[in-house]
């Protein structure tokens, strides 16, 4: 089994909460990113103390309430029944050393994105209508991006979070690019994780992760609910005909700047 591919799981907790994906320091090659997806039944609650960690909570599907203990509650968050409605959703940024609780109003799936943090910042509601939407690429390289936590704002210490939709028969994160060198202004060092979903759900995508020296070089068949880890290297995604791709990207590193370089062997594609 690949060390870069984490399959979906089903770990039932108490009170109607099920963990369906978990990337933790104990089971991952990543140092700056942890990630979790939980499924909530109506009225079920998931709670956590962050300690030296910041978190972005994303209402993937369904409706939720989020309470930051000692601060305030954010009610009726979430805009969609499926991520493939292709509309932005609501998110909450919570800084380190805070305790929060997420409650399902309806059946809901929630993504939790984590990174180390030692500077406390204000809690922030990221409303769906404030999420920037971009359309990138041409020909067979088309995708739509929801910028939840881009590097153009100062909401977080380290986390960068985006949602990406790739059309059937197209490529994404393409031409292959990387951001694994702490060499600003030319390139930033950012780890990355990809949480994948497909429409219809029995579909799959291919993702390759490789470095210039090929010390990492893996091509993976990725199914619905899987996570691909990118500790370094280029990381393109190919979507077969007949299926649509959704992925939730989390990036984090020593500096909160997204500066990448394309694989020079394939950069000619941009000049068509």
TrEMBL record:
GO BP terms: namely: inositol catabolic process
Keywords of the record, alphabetical order, are: Isomerase
Catalytic activity as recorded in UniProt = 5-deoxy-D-glucuronate = 5-dehydro-2-deoxy-D-gluconate
Pathway given for this chain reads: Polyol metabolism; myo-inositol degradation into acetyl-CoA; acetyl-CoA from myo-inositol: step 4/7
> According to the lineage, what is the superkingdom?
Bacteria
Q: Which Pfam families match?
A: KduI (PF04962)
The first-level EC class reads isomerase
A GO MF label: glucuronate isomerase activity
Q: Does the keyword Ribosomal protein apply?
A: no
The record ties this protein, via InterPro entries, to:
Deoxy-glucuronate_isom_IolB, IolB_Bacilli, KduI/IolB_isomerase, RmlC-like_jellyroll, RmlC_Cupin_sf
Q: What is its EC number?
A: 5.3.1.30
Protein function: Involved in the isomerization of 5-deoxy-glucuronate (5DG) to 5-dehydro-2-deoxy-D-gluconate (DKG or 2-deoxy-5-keto-D-gluconate).
The record, for HAMAP family, names: IolB
Q: Which family does it belong to?
A: Belongs to the isomerase IolB family.
Recorded hits in PANTHER family, A to Z, give: 5-DEOXY-GLUCURONATE ISOMERASE
Task: State what protein this is by name.
Answer: 5-deoxy-glucuronate isomerase
Please tell me the species this chain comes from: Peribacillus psychrosaccharolyticus (Bacillus psychrosaccharolyticus)
């Amino acid at each position: 089994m690949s060390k870069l591919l984490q399959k979906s799981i089903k770990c039932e907790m108490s009170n109607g909460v099920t963990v369906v994906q978990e990337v933790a320091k104990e089971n991952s090659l990543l140092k700056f990113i942890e990630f979790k997806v939980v499924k909530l039944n109506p009225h079920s609650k998931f709670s956590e103390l962050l300690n030296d960690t910041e978190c972005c909570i994303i209402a993937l599907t369904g409706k939720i309430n989020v309470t930051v203990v000692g601060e305030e509650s954010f009610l009726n968050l979430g805009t969609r029944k499926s991520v493939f409605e292709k509309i932005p959703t609501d998110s909450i940024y919570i800084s380190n050393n805070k305790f929060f609780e997420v409650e399902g109003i309806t059946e809901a799936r929630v993504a939790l994105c984590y990174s180390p943090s030692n500077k406390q910042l204000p809690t922030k509601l990221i409303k769906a209508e404030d999420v920037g939407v971009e359309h990138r690429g041409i020909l067979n390289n088309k995708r739509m991006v929801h910028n939840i936590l881009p590097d153009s704002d100062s909401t977080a210490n380290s986390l960068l979070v985006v949602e990406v939709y790739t059309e059937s028969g197209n490529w994404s994160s393409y031409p292959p690019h990387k951001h694994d060198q702490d060499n600003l202004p030319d390139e930033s060092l950012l780890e990355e994780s990809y949480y994948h979903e497909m429409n219809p759900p029995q579909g799959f995508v291919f993702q390759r992760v490789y470095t210039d020296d090929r010390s990492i070089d893996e091509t993976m068949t990725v199914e619905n609910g899987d996570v691909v880890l990118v500790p370094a290297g280029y990381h393109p995604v190919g979507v077969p005909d007949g299926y649509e791709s959704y992925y939730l990207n989390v990036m984090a590193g020593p500096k909160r700047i997204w500066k990448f370089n394309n694989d020079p062997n394939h950069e000619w594609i941009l000049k068509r």
